[in-house]
Amino acid sequence: MLSDSPVAVEQHGPELLHHFVDAKQQRDAATLGMWLFLATEIMFFGGMFCAYLIYRFWYYNEFAVGSRSIDLKWGTINTAVLICSSLTVALGVRAAQMGKRKLVVVLLLLTIVFGLTFLGIKSIEWYSKFEEHHVPGRSFNADDLVKAYPQIHIDPQREQIFFSLYFAMTGLHALHMIIGVGVFAFLTYYAWKGRYTPEYYTPIEMGGLYWHFVDIVWIYLFPLLYLIDRKPLG
Amino acid sequence: MSEHIISSKLYYAIWIALLVLTVVTALVATVDLGPFNTIVALVIATFKALLVVLFFMHVKYTSEKLTKTVIVAAIFWLLLLLVLSMADYTTRLLS
Q: How many structural domains comprise chain B?
């Protein structure tokens, strides 16, 4: 009957909430809840991917020209930056599992640096689109694209649809990145304070799941936005 | 008490694979494969996403069937949305 005595209850740390049997059950519950949240996020982004699919089907030429006009070099570099950030997250969770506090802090900080690098590069790309008048609205002008790609017939007004989706999708993704950087700032602070142990590192693991999810969204955005039509024009 | 800890070598291997696939997908896009350009790009993206989900997100090592069910259901919902929408839009007669 020792397991039912109050003494046994006191053997775990204060982070184990009383309605869970043990730390594993608490962690599994958190993981399940996080994946349920990510499922709603998949549907959130899914609506945009669906709109993208329909308009790409209708206005393929406008999408092809729009895709050619965004910078493949920055897109590829940004994909690599996000992949590096996912590595530092994975290694950060691993360091937390092993209780290496300083390593966790360093890896989480590196993740924030990669995240900010991504946002910085994204802002360079957006800035050039504003300069080229490729932002949907009154000042939108795609005449330069009509001239640049005479082989592909486009309606310059319909070109706005591609750029609307480009800004909406990369914008929603960037918003998730900004939130991710905020979450990781908190995680870094509490990791530095020593809140996380090999028995309790659930917040780092959950923050990591969120970060990896945002990375996966970009893994799809990269080919869908940057690689629609990069074939040499005959 | 702690969960299964994956060796850091495996994490580095996944990282290298993801970087290589990124370069490959960007290079393949510049070669004319006809309609296969889009298919190749999406297959590579899905393979990359799979590597992230299975290893970085530890899904390969989880014993929780409920978590896996949620993931499969989420992908199924997404495919329902995309496939049924396209089944409509691709079969309309545009006047």
A: 2
